[in-house]
Amino acid sequence: MTVQPGRDILIRIGDSADPPTFTSAAGLRLKTISLNARPVDVTHAESVEGWRELLAGAGVKTCSVSGSGVFVDAAADARIRQAFFDQSRDDWQLLIPDFGTLTGPFQVAALDYAGRHDGEATWSMSLASAGPLAFEGL
Prior knowledge:
Elements: E1 10-14, E2 22-24, E3 28-38, E4 60-70, H1 74-86, E5 90-96, E6 100-115, E7 121-129, E8 134-137
Antiparallel strand pairs: 1-2, 1-5, 3-4, 4-7, 5-6, 6-7, 6-8
């Protein structure tokens, strides 16, 4: 993997069509995508030399996404805001350069607005995966 500009990471929300058309969560300056798998510990008294044993394929997988930036697209802002208030399960697409694309249902878990008296208004959001994600490698 070569060095990639952070701006090439895209976070996009679907329009509820089948198949969905995705719109970028515009204006994001900072984006973080975290993939996690909680293991299931099956260690017992007879585990070899007391080493921990994990049950393959049994853990809970999650994906959390966060981003923050500035307002640049009123339509995208309204779509994300509505998804938060509806607490809907919407299709989102996460594009990570030289890695691939993750697509699947997420809920907007947090939506924050901020602004300094001498600066621009900013916003941030957090997404929580709400079902299985499809991965397509690049």
